[in-house]
Structure formats: structure tokens, C-alpha cells
Amino acid sequence: MIDSAHCGELARWQTREYASNHGQTNIMTDLTEKEVLHSLRSHLPRLLRSDPSLSESILTVTREHFPTKVETEDRFTRMLDELAREREVQDRKWAEQKAEDRRKWDEQDRKWDEQDRKWEEQNRKWDEQKAEDKRKWEESNRRFDEVHREIMAQSKKLDRSIGALGARWGLQSEKAFRDALASILVESFGVEVVNVNEFDEEGTVFGQPDQIELDVIIKNGLLIICELKSSVDKPAMYTFERKVRFYERRHRRQANRMIVVSPMIEHRARRVGEKLGIEMYPDSLDVPVT
């Protein structure tokens, strides 16, 4: 846009040029600047359309103060190109920043995953250690219970051995000792020991009629005949074998096993028992009842 100062200058230049070209040196000298500007605004568009040289003259003057259309377009083009380059640079920086942020987050996630894996591994080791400690504790308790049971069994066996001595020397009855051995069989093996007391009219056991006393165990269809005594000598071993045969004839059933349980079995009695097929054990806990 041309301001008032430029319009005034243009008007004065145009007036001088027009007057010089037409030989009128004094034309419009008396006009005021305001009137010239008004006249110029009113007639200039028409004059530019009718006189191409006037347009060229005006462009020559204004070109010194204002850029041409091409220059203006070039300037805008350069500005747009610069803005485009700036935007590309900014987009690249944003992309690089996003990639860097993504890399940092991925790295942080990897570290968290690694930490979680370490915690899981630590928890697994703790669980294994707890399980191992529990197993060792249970094993220790089991061993303690076994040792305690063994100690108690040995203590009871010692008590029975002492009881056997007492029964032999009259300090304890034979029946009390027999009942103690029988109770061990009942508690340890879950079998029932039946005391059989029958009369031998023919005297096949003692050579004359007398009472015959035996301990009988029936387990899983097996007939087991036992002799539970504080001490057994050679004659007693033969007597036990005759009692078994008496029971077999009386009840028409053969014994599957003959067992003598006594803490004191004489050496000669042991040889007789082996010859007769009699099992011999020092204590009720040693008897394999199957």
C-alpha cells in the first residue's frame, strides 16, 4: 500500500513529468498538495489503464521502495521452505526423543522384569529352604520317636527279663509274666492271644491225666500255638511239643507255627527246639507275626 508521503511525491513527480511532456511548465503549480492527492486518487486508476508508460514509470519509482511480486513470492517461498525445514527438524527431534523415551522405558521394564525374576528365584529358594527345614525337623522328630520307642522297648524288655528272674525265683507269678508277654503281642501286632486250658484225660502230655494250658493265636487263617514262659529248659521244650500235638488231635487241625517266647532258654532246650521245628524268641517284640 502506498502511504500519503509517497502519494505526494508521486503526484509532484507526475505533475512535473506531464507538464514537461506537454510544454506546460506552470500547469497545476497553484494546486495544493491535498488537492493533488485527491485528484490523483480519483484519476490514477484510469490513467494507468489508458497509459501503459505511466504504469511503467510508477513501477520504476515504487520498485525502489517496495519489492516486486516475484521477489515477494520468493521471500514467501523461502519462509515456507524454512518453516518446513524447521518442522522437519522438530519432527525428527520429537521422533528421536520418543525413541529415546521408549528405549529408557523398555530398559526400565527389563530391569523390573529382572528384579521380579530375582524375587521369584529368592522366593523359590526360601520355599525350598522352608521345605528342607520342615523335612529335616520331621525327620529329626521321627528319629527321636524311633529312639524313644526303642529305648522304651528295651526298658520294657529289661523289665520282663527282671520279671522272668523274679518268676523263676518265686518273686513274681508265672501267670503275671505270661500275661505281660501276651499283652505285648496284642499291642504290637494287633492279634488276639487266647489262653486255652483243657483236660488231658489220656495223659498223653504228662504221662497221666492233667490240665493242659496253651496260648493260641489265629491270624489270617493261620494257627499259631505259643508257649510264654519266664524260662524254658530241655524237658519244658519236649512238653510244649507234646501239648501242641494234643491240641492238634483234639481240634483236628494242624498248627502252622510253634513259638516259644522266653528271655531265658537253656542251650540244650534251644537245640531241642531247633530239632522239633519250634521258633524261639527272647521277647514278644521279636516275634514276626504275619
UniProtKB/TrEMBL annotation:
Pfam families named in the record: DUF3782, PDDEXK_10
Name under which the protein is recorded: PD-(D/E)XK nuclease superfamily protein
Organism whose genome encodes this protein: Candidatus Kentrum eta
